[in-house]
Amino acid sequence: MTEHPEAVAPTPASVPFLGRRILILFAHPSLDRSEANAPMAAAARRLDGITFVDLYAEYPGSEIDVDREQQRLLAHQVVCFQHPLYWYSTPAILKEWQDLVLEHGFAYGTGGTALHGKVFFCAITAGGAAAAYCAQGYNHFTIRELLRPLEQTALLCGMTYLPPFALFGARTAVEEGRIGAHVADWMRVLTGLRDGRLDIARAASQPRLNHDLDGLLDAADAGVVG
Amino acid sequence: MGAVLFQVIVYLGAAVIAVPVAKRLGLGSVLGYLIAGIVIGPVFHIVGSETEQLQHFAEFGVVMMLFLVGLELKPQLLWQMRARLLGLGGLQVLATAGAIAAVGVLFLAHWQTALAAGLLLALSSTAIVLQTLSEKGLMRTDGGRAGFAVLLFQDIAVIPMLAVIPLLAFPEIAQVAQHPAGAGEVAAHGGAAAGQGVADHGAARSLVDGLPGWAYTLVVLGAVAAVVLGGHFLSRPLFRFIAASNLRESFTAAALFLVVGIALLMTLVDLSPALGTFLAGVVLADSEFRHELESDIEPFKGLLLGLFFITVGAGIDFGVLFAELATVLGLTLGVMAVKGALLFGLGRLFHLRAADHWLFTLSLAQAGEFGFVLLAFSTQNAVIPPELAKLLSLVIALSMLLTPVLFIGYDRLVLPRLRGDAAQPTDSIDEQGSVIIAGAGRFGQVVNRLLVAAGVRTVVLDHDAGIVERMRRIGIRSYFGDASRPDLLHAAGIGQATAFVVAIDDRDRAVALVEYLRREFPQLRILARAFDVDHLYLLRTAGADLALREVFDASLELGAATLRALGRHPFAVEKLRRAFHMHDLETLEELCELWDHDLEFSKNRALLERVRARTAEELTLIARDRTLLHDRTERGWTPPPKGYTDAMDG
After folding, report:
1. B125: helix, coil or strand?
2. pTM score, whole prediction
3. Nearest Cβ partner of A104 from B578, B636, B641?
4. Are the Cβ atoms of B648 and A108 closer than 8 angstroms?
5. Please, what's the b/e burial string for B162-173 (b: 16 or more CB within 10 A of its CB; e: otherwise)?
6. CATH of B432-550, one of 3.40.190.10, 3.90.1150.10, 2.70.70.10, 3.40.50.720
7. d(Cα B129, Cα B28) in Å, to the nearest integer?
8. Is the ipTM value over 0.90, yes or no?
C-alpha cells in the first residue's frame, strides 16, 4: 500500500532479535533539498533492527493514523525524532504527531504507561554554529536547554531521555566536508543503541549524544551496564 | 430484399477487410476504401451500375463532414480566415481553371468545352483531403488550414459554375447529348448532389425557378439567415428539450434531422447543401451540444464517406482506361502537375512555410467529387461531349486515387527531410521515465496538467482528434487514436513509460486496457479512473495498482463545503471529512472481498448480507450519536479528563 515500505529488520524466526528495536520518526518537509538529513536517513534505512518512518511521506496531508502510530511505539524500545531544527523545535508534523499519538491513558495520565522504560532522543540538524548555542551566543541557550519541552514530554511519559544527536552549521556541512563523519557517527549511535553497547546512564547526562561518543561506546564495551 | 442485403454485405465486407489492411500498411483509410471499390467493381464485377446511384447518396457524407468541420470552427476563426478564403481560394480556382482551359483550347474543338473542363478540374476533393487531414491530425496546421480555406472557396464557387456552364452550350453537342435535362433538376445537385440523395427521387424542386434576380437574392439571404438565426436561437431549447428525454437515439435523430433539413433547405434555394450545413456547424460551434452532435453525426459521416470512396473506386472504367491508358495517365499526371505547380506558387505568395507549403501543394493537387457533378451537368447541357466526359471522369477518379499516395510521399519523404536531425534529441529525452495518459477528457486533462506542472514528460492519447490537436497546439505530445491499440501504445513509447493513467470514458474498454497493460507490461504502474465501485473493483481485478472513483473526492469536498455553509467550524468539518473518508475506504475494502462481478448484485448473498449488516450497523451508530465517526473525529485533540493533574501529582 505505502510507497515506503518500512525498514523493519526482517529478523528470521530462527534467530530471535535480542537487541533494542529503534523507531526513527523522520520529519523533513523538503527532503529533495536536504543535505544532511538525507544521507543520515539513507544510512539508517540500511540498518537492521531499525524502523524508519518518513512521516511526511506517509501522511502528506498530516492525517496521522493514531492506532498505527501507537502500535509502532509499542513494538520498539527506542524512539527517535529525526528532523531539522525549526524554530527551536520540530517541524509541524512531529508536533501534530505528539498531539495525536501521545494520548491520555496511553502515554501519560491514568493508565498511560505504554511508553514506560523506553528510550527517547532527537537527532537534529541545526543551521547555527555550535558557538551560537550557549549563553553568550545569539541563541542564548544550549541545544539541550532549547529542547526542554521534548525532554519533559519524554519524562511525563516515563521514558528515559537522552540528549540530542546534533549537527551544527548544517547548511555548510557539505562544503566543509563534515557530512561523512557525521553519518558515520550516526551509524555508531544507532548500532550502539540497538546492540546495547551505548552507555545510556552516562549518555543521559551529556550535553549532546555526539559530545563524547567514543567515551559512551567504550564505557559500554568495558562492561559498564547501561 | 436478398439482393439489397447482398450488396450491403459486399460493400461492408470490402470496407471491413480493405480499410484495416490499408491502415496497417500506412496507406490511410481513403486509399483502403478506393482499393476496396476497385476490387469489388472493375476487378471482380461483384457490383455493377448501381454504384453511380449509391455515389449520389454517399455524397451526403461530404455534407455531414462539412457540418462537423463547421462545429470545430468558431465564427471568429472563420472570420480570421477571410483573406485566405477569398485570396488563396479565389486565385486557385481562377488560375487553375484558366491554365487548364488554355491547354485545352489547343486540343479541343471548342473553347467552351475547354473552359468547362478547366472549371471542373480546378475543384479538389473535399472528401479525401479533409478526411485524410483529420485522420493524420493535420487540420490545425497552417498548411491544413490553408487547404481548408481553398476547399471551402471551391464549395462556394460551384454555385456560379452551375450558373455559367449552361451558357457555354453549343448546338452540335446538344443533339448528341442523351437527355438535355431541365436546369432545375440538375441544379438540385447543388454542389455535392446531396439534395438528390436526400429527396431520393432526384427531383427536389427548386423554389427559386423563374424568380427575378432581386427576389432570388432575398430568398437566398433569407435561407442563410434562417440557418444562422435558427441555429443560434432555436437549436438550444430544442436540443435541451430532447436531451432531457434521455433517449440517445432521439438526440441522434434530431441531429440527423438538423443536417438533412438544412441540406434540403439549401437545395430548395439552389445553394450548396454542404455550404449550408457548414454554416450551421459554425453557428453551433459554441454550443454545449457540440460534442454530442459530433459524436452522433460522426459514424454516419464515416460510413457514407467510406461508401463514397468505394463507389469512386468501383466506378473506374477499366475498359476505357486500358484502351486509352497513355492518354488517361498523361492527362491525370498533367492535371495534377498543373494544379500542384499553381498551388506551390500560391503557397509561396501566401507565405506558407516548409512543411505547410508542401502539405498545401500535395494535398489539393487532385480533382474532386464536385468534378463528377459538374461533369454530368456539363454533358447534359451539351458543353462536354460524352466521350470526353468518360475520359475526364477517369482522370478525376485516378487523381483521387493518387492523392493518398501523395500524402504518403509527404509523410515519408517531405517530413523526415524537413525535420532532419531535430527529431532525434526529443526521442532521447523521451527515454526518461514518462507517463502515458489515455483519455484527454476533463479527467485526463487535469491529471496531465498536474504532471506537466511537476515537470513530468507526458504523452496523451485520445480518440478525439479535436482534443488531440488542441493538446498538440499547446505543445503536449498527443496522439489520436484508440488507446487500446498496441501499435499506438508503442508509438507513444510505452516501453519507456513508468506509469500509465487510464482515463478513457468507456468503462469496458478501460478494464480491457488495464488487463492488457498488466499482462504485457508487468513493471508498469497503472492508475485508473473508475466510474463507480463496481468499476473500481473490476479495474483492480484487472490489475490496476490504483483505481479512484471519479466523483468521490469532489462529492466529499462539496459535502464538507455544505457543512461549512451551515456554520460548522471548518476544522471540525475537516475532521469529520477525514473520518468519513477513512470509514468509506474501509467499507470499500471490506466489500471487495465479497464482490463478484459475474454474480449479479441481488444474487450475491454474502455481499448483500454484509451490506445489510453494515447498513444496520451504521443506523445504530447514528442512533448512538454516531459513535464510530464521533470517536474518530473527537479522538485526536481530545483534552485529557478534567482533574487529570491530581493523579499526576500523586
Report:
1. coil
2. 0.49
3. B641
4. yes
5. beebbebbeeeb
6. 3.40.50.720
7. 12
8. no
